[in-house]
Amino acid sequence: MDSDLQKPRSPVYGPVPSWRHGRSLGIDLILQDSICSFNCVYCQLGSIHQVIDQQGVFVSGSAVITELERVNWDAVDIATFSGSGEPTLALNLGEIVDHVRFTLGKPVLVLTNATWLHDEATRQRLRNASIVECKLDAATDETLRRFNRPAKGIGLERIIEGVKALRTDPDFAGRLTIQTMFMPANVREAEMIADLIAEIGPDEVQLNTPRRPYPREWYLDARGNHGDRESPVETVSLATISEEEAERIERLIRERSGVPIRSIYRRTV
Questions:
Q1: What is the C-alpha separation between 178 and 255, in angstroms, rounded?
Q2: Is residue 117 part of a domain?
Q3: Which positions ≥6 away from 8 have C-beta within 8 Å?
């Protein structure tokens, strides 16, 4: 852990392999700590240090752009905004999205828990993203509280209405994807989640289950850890759904929504 803390912290990392998007360069606009509006039970960062519902500037735009200029972009398929927490908490998200998309000419993916999509200014920052991938793991506030453990004041209605607002925003020309993480703890809500997906009408659903280990402590490299390196901290394996269960849920979502599905067990749409 000490050696990890001594590493210089860069807002750019990777590229790392993604089962969904190829060679993904990570862009971390949080960086100071693990900071998010969720504290999901399966988060690859481990338990989030600061669970907040407040936006700010955590890393200067000039520092990020300086690091981006050093990247070998020939080795990158897509730039992914994720990192040490929720990227829509960063007020300079739009500035860096636009720089990557238009100055550097690479597609942009933003991974978000959708807790700030109800906010017009936040949606404005996302309008030039190639893909916005929204988390949807719960169909009730009870499961949201137990599974995603949001900051105080965040409820499911705010999240769903925000995703719908981005979906219908005439200035957003990118793809909207729903990423759903299933574990035994939330699988009973599969039918209701399928109905919410049908209501939203995304371009694609990504069906996932937590096959990465959960770290007992946060460490910087966890933001790009896809299980191919030994963790410097203790980890635990999480309960997953079986391939058969994933196929059942996939059929359910397809029947209720008609949306193309990419599953971690079957990676083609």
A1: 16
A2: yes
A3: none
Residue 134 placed within a domain = yes
Domain for residue 123, yes or no? yes
When divided into structural domains, the chain yields a total of 1
Is residue 265 a part of any domain in this protein?
A: no
State pLDDT tens for residues 72-129.
999 999 999 999 999 999 999 999 999 999 999 999 999 999 999 999 999 999 999 9
- Domain of 102? 2-178+213-238
Indicate which CATH number applies to the domain containing 52. 3.20.20.70
**What would the pLDDT profile of 22-35 be if each residue is shown by its tens digit?**
899 999 999 989 99
